[in-house]
Amino acid sequence: MVAAGTHPIIAVAGLACETSTFTPSRTQAEAFHPRRGPEIIDKYPFIQPGTILGDAADWRGVLIGHALPGGIVTRAAFESLAAEIVSGLRSLVASEGLDGLWFDIHGAMCVECLDDAEYELLRRCREVLGPRVLVSASMDLHGNVSRELAHQTDLITCYRTAPHVDVLETRGRACRNLVGLLRRRAAGEEVVRPFKAWISLPVLLPGEQTSTRDEPAAHIYAAVPEVEAIPGVVDAAIWVGYAWADEPRNRAVVVVTGWDKEATSRGAERLARTFWNAHKDFKFVAATGTFAECIDAALASDKRPYFISDSGDNPTAGGSGDVTWGLTQLLARPEFKSALGSKVIYASVPGPEAIRIAVEAGIGATVTVTAGAEVDNIHAGPITMTGRVHSIKHGDVHAQVEVVLQVGSVFAILTKLRKPYHHESDFTELDLAPRSADIVIVKIGYLEPELYDMASDWMLGLTPGGVDQDLERLGHRRIKRPMWPFDRDFDEPDLSARIIEMSNEKLSTSSD
């Protein structure tokens, strides 16, 4: 326990991966790109020495891993990384003692033969830490908060924007709240743990219907800081949940944390009521259509560049990234057979062997290559193309190597490993000018901020893949029913808050 006048010792640990149970790929340990020790402190500027938070505590990096979204995490990967986290925490407890843990997670990680992976990881950590160590979790709003996970934490919060422009702000808030809680304990205050009011909502929607740029999510999330400002409340958060995994925990959740039990409960119930009152109003963030309808609309429009989301294989939502269905459909269109046709950029399809052939041939060469469908061949097989090598780039953190192949008027981006394309520089570094293109097609859901600002118009293509926007087409079997929008006619849920509280001696829950 931290003594008065000394700095608390806070460990940093966690695993983050948004994983679709409908994607055939598997996520291995190396995909998490684990950071350890000082590498973790280097990653987060707000806990570095010389900053307010950095000087308020002694921060100890254990292990964090943030993997690109994808398929289920293998049990072996989880066990190896979890064991290292637990071992690191045990060593810190034995050598220095610990006062707090910042649990740096996403909240939608699925592990083979294991439900509620984040809870299981924290449960194992708690076995080492004991109940007295205070835990603050930061999460993505597309994560899932089971009652068990909320119970194991003292503070828990998530992003308030989608697209996520408040990532560092949220993580900083989680750390700031933890330091504040430890200061109360050091000051000898009798009550050292806040109450948590937890409410689950039978709603499971994709991010493309719940962006905070649009209503009704805009006004729902605008209420979060209002509730947080209520006297006696420490933090307020709303999780939309993760729609592309089939686990019982997957659903929307509200958690409000505070010192005043009544104010905390009222705040949670206000947010839950606001969400539920609008649950039938959620709609897609853009006009939608089949892939063919989107291309037809783009060709008929005078808006340039016209963006299309090839949403079913979005690698930042859990898609495998190597579905060839969209590119196959695109190259079959007669409008793009000639180099003089409408200029289209397509991002992207991985193909290591295609990359090798193109790199060996060099820029300007004409090559025939085959790419894609090495992991996900459910919807389409590998695609074979003949085209001119337009550009080559080495050294990308995700793709490793990228090649642009011009096939007719289509500039198809091929990668050694899958990669998301969210920034204008992702294209310009490949000698592509997206602002001058007629159509830009990206494997994405809602457009990330730079693409959104760049697009003169856009549509969301309802394409197949592991993160299909047609949730009912995917075939969920294990989510708790009834659940909107899978079920359309059911009684209003109980929106009263469940109070979760923890003593210094044991972990216990109660309902009021």
Q: Helix- and strand-based class?
A: alpha/beta
Mean pLDDT figure = 95
Beta-strand percent range? 15-25%
Number of helices: 13
Rounded to the nearest angstrom, the distance between the terminal CA atoms is 30 Å
Which value, in Å, is the CA radius of gyration?
A: 24 Å
Profile the largest sheet.
Answer: 9 strands, mixed
Helicity range of the residues? Answer: 25-40%
Would you count the extended β strands for me? Answer: 22
Overall spatial form:
globular
Number of domains: 2
Low-pLDDT segments: 508-512
Q: Would you write up a description of this structure?
A:
The chain is α/β, with parallel strands linked by helices. It has 2 domains: 9-283 and 495-500, no CATH class; 287-468, no CATH class. 27% of the residues lie in helices and 24% in strands. The chain contains 13 helices and 22 strands. It has helices at 38-43, 75-95, 117-129, 147-152, 167-186, 217-228, 261-277, 291-300, 325-331, 352-361, 424-428, 449-454, 471-474; strands at 9-16, 19-20, 26-27, 35-36, 58-66, 70-73, 100-104, 134-139, 155-158, 195-201, 233-239, 252-258, 287-289, 306-310, 344-350, 366-371, 383-396, 400-407, 410-415, 439-442, 457-461, 498-500. It has a 9-stranded mixed β-sheet with strand order 13-21-14-20-15-19-18-17-16. A 6-stranded mixed β-sheet has the order 4-5-1-7-8-9, sandwiched between helices. Strands 11-12-10-22 form a 4-stranded antiparallel β-sheet. β8, α4 (147-152) and β9 (155-158) form a beta-alpha-beta unit. α2 (75-95) runs parallel beside α3 and α6 (217-228) runs antiparallel to α7 (261-277). The longest helix has 21 residues, at 75-95. The chain starts with 8 loop residues before the first strand and ends in a 12-residue tail after the last strand. The model is unreliable at 508-512 (pLDDT under 50).
